[in-house]
## 1
Amino acid sequence: MSKLLKQLLVDELKNDIKDADSAVLLTYSGVESEDNTQLRADLRSKKVQMRLVKNSLARISFQGGALESLADEFKGPSAIAYPMEAGDSVAVPKALKDWEEKLKGVEFLSGIVDGKKIGRDDILRLANLPGRDELLGQIVGLLQSPLVGIVSCLQSPLQGIIGLLDALHEKKGAQES
């Protein structure tokens, strides 16, 4: 590979990862072409980009960036996966979780989340977290439950008063007849 081509590849990767605050490094070997195509299509639909890169070029690309601490982890056939849009640190582990279980040649090595280096176990924990929308729903439910309790406490005395008034009304109606 010529120096010019290597420099172009380094520049392209640097440009792609410049805004990435999270990424997952994985081993990637022995994956058949059809599985590779399906994996990449699935990742794109989940707004995750995966790149197979030569280890030496990846190390050069990561210098001085947020993913620099991953540079020494590139050994053997490796791939780097990162979100297409910054801010969703859990997207990559979640997108790759099923594929790691399905394909024998794909395995989490390490990663970076919000600038902190994490290991394989942490990546798996992140992959098992509920999605952002589900977490927001849980928070709304937690915030809503005390309000429901307050409303029911306020309603129960009113319902008791209404019950008494109805009973009084029926009693007066019975006395008048």
Note: Residues 132-176 form the longest helix (45 residues).
## 2
Amino acid sequence: MNYLVTGTDTGVGKTFCCCGLIRAATKAGLKCIGMKPLCTGDTEDVHLIAEAAGNRVPLHLINQVWLRPPLAPYAAAMLEQRPIDLLAIKEAYQELSSRHEFVLVEGAGGLLVPILQNYNFRDLAADLNLKIVLVAGNRLGAINHTLLTAEAVKQAGLQLALVILNELGPAPNLAGQTNPSILEELLTAPLYTSPFGNSDFGAALKMLNPSFGQGT
């Protein structure tokens, strides 16, 4: 099964967690790849994802649309007066998924960020038959933002496979200390708390599928 890695907001560590999962899957013996089909602003995320997978595939399969303004894809495309080619994204995904056991598709911002006027990352996940990995920054507001996104996933008939509560600093404040237990109580999806600077996402990988962590 393949996954959309989305966030409760921008700047919560989606790429960091996505790369961590790719490395953990590779270590477990899985043929794994990541892609960032829509990238705005700089292209650092694209190169980090490619590097996490060992730079094994050309960048045009990892990223199909790059727009210079650091905005939601729909807004950036309007500013650049460029169309967004959904077909190219779907064809690249099909090629990667045919060659890999495990594909992580990283979104931009949150689940409902628009790609086109009437099409967002939730729609893309539905079209590609992706389960959802949700990354939330462990800070004040994470509970509300996580539950809102979980509700949006449920309303679309998609599956929330994993929530990653990502530590954004070395010393969590009071909200950061209490968020994990509250979210574990309120969520039906598994919750993984990623420590600051985490270098091993093996436990998170097992939460997605216990067989993923068995190695070869």
Note: The chain has a mean pLDDT of 96.
## 3
Amino acid sequence: MPVFIWSFPHLFHFLEYSVMLTTSFPTRPEDITPLPLGSRVPSIILPNEDGKIINVNALLREKPAVLIIYRGGWCPYCNMQMSSLRLVEDEFYKLGFNIFGISPDKPSKLGESRDKHNFKYQLLSDSKMTVAKSFGLAYKLDDDTVKMMKEKFNTDIEGDSGETHHLLPVPAVYLVDSSGVFGFNYVNPDFTVRMDSQELLRIAQKKYGSK
């Protein structure tokens, strides 16, 4: 009988691979399990719309941040939310915040959104859904839904992300302080209902304005 001797690195990679094979995601947005208020923000190291790698965690040590996790530039509700945030972004900057929009769109699609909507804040590409998974926001579309979106709405989520995982994030908003902790979060499985940007600003002013 053959005997397999595992070194720790080999065992680690085997277990990591096994987890990847067995990991499943909810098929309904209502069934996600997002990180709770007070959690420490997971690693966020992603390319921006120009392909430059941005380490959000390192930037958090300098400034707090608004994180907007959205479905993509193809989503009209996302675009309305992102555009409304643009109207109050200067007020957030006065409070000392950075603002990041994170979606599954690949960098070239982010660039199209930036140019079309004149976004000033940075957009980051979570095309492999690494951040959405770590935040507990990822859910999986079935093949029929992916096909329907492409045929009926001309929305190609594979083309926009460059990936075939068929995962989307439940839209979410976070205020993260400079210690990397969620001071406020808003997660709603109903993608048609979004956090009001003026209300988000009021919360940030009340919570961080005197600091």
Note: The chain has one domain: 28-208.
## 4
Amino acid sequence: MVLSAGKRIAVTEEDKEAQKQRIIRAAIRVFGRYGYHKSTVSQVARQADMGRGTLYWYYKSKEDIFRSIVQQFMSEATEKINRQLQTNISFESKIKGFIRDWLELATREEDIARIMYSVFSQSHGKFAQEMLKSVKKMYLDIIEILKNCFAREILKGQMRPADTRRLARLLIGLLDGIILQHIFVEKISPEPMTEVLTKLVLQGLIR
């Protein structure tokens, strides 16, 4: 239920989710423009074209909004990557799809990636540690998914025997380095970069 001119109005779950997404997209624009630390809930509410009181029906604080942004981004990344690596296609196609999905998601949601890097590099305290813990879990989950994919391909004889966990960490670190360059140095185009990286990675993996 929400209040409008003193009256209670029923709100469906679909309406609530739509409003939450509206606030999240507004917050991403505001945080991207002013930086997370300098942004305020009032600015987010104005960007979302709603009153601050209405925004507080959905999120308790700026930290709560940021938490939702990070969790939504991580959930989408993990789900998309897991689906790609579980698909019944060739090993080459899996690796290419993994690289493409990672780069496309990060470049499409560049503002989120930039905000996350900024917050984690400048923040301290309980909230920052909580968010870092969540991001660490996402990376560990993706490392495990990629590691298991490599192990299956080794068993099938499609890939050279190797330390699958270290390989997973190396590939993710390579992609993160490219994303950092995209954000802070020079923009990349995901598709051409995917082609180059896929050839480079597969040269060292395929038997």
Note: Residues 103 and 205 are 20 Å apart (CA to CA).
